[in-house]
Design goal:
Blueprint (H helix, E strand, L loop, with lengths): L1 E2 H4 L1 H22 L13 E10 L6 E4 L7 E6 L4 E3 L2 E3 L8 E3 L6 E5 L6 E3 L2 E14 L1
Antiparallel strand pairs: 1-2, 2-10, 3-9, 4-8, 4-10, 5-10, 6-7, 6-9
């Protein structure tokens, strides 16, 4: 995993503008439907690029991003791989869900322990995703 600001400061600055204008506005709207969820205008973020391959960091087991993470933004950057995807754990009402977005599509979800998720194993190729943890 590599922080986006260490990949390219210019790219990082552009991404932060997009994040504030689009993703954060969407989070304020969508997360407002979850009881007890509050989205503040001021926030801190941690944005990084993650790489998954069949040989190294093939997957992530079910986890939550931490109670300090208000929401997570996950954007697929590549499609030259097989396997992969983000799996969201089910509960008594929900049987679980495997999200396999197209390049450029973004998943957004709360980061707390109620929203456990994991990355399914990559079987071949390289899967790159851009992840932002948003902290209030």
């Amino acid at each position: 995993d590599v922080l986006l600001r260490n990949v390219s400061h210019e790219l990082y600055e552009k991404y932060i503008e997009i994040q504030r204008e689009y993703f954060h506005a969407m989070a304020k709207y969508c997360l407002g439907f979850i009881p007890g969820s509050v989205v503040y205008d001021e926030y801190k973020e941690e944005t990084f690029v993650a790489k998954y391959t069949a040989d190294n960091q093939t997957h992530l087991t079910l986890h939550h991003d931490g109670d300090h993470v208000s929401y997570t933004v996950n954007t697929l950057l590549s499609d030259d791989f097989t396997g992969g995807g983000t799996y969201f754990e089910g509960d008594r009402k929900f049987n679980g869900f495997l999200a396999k977005p197209f390049v450029g599509e973004t998943l957004m979800h709360p980061g707390n322990r109620k929203y456990r998720h994991g990355s399914r194993p990559v079987h071949s190729g390289e899967r790159y995703i851009l992840i932002s943890f948003i902290h209030f």
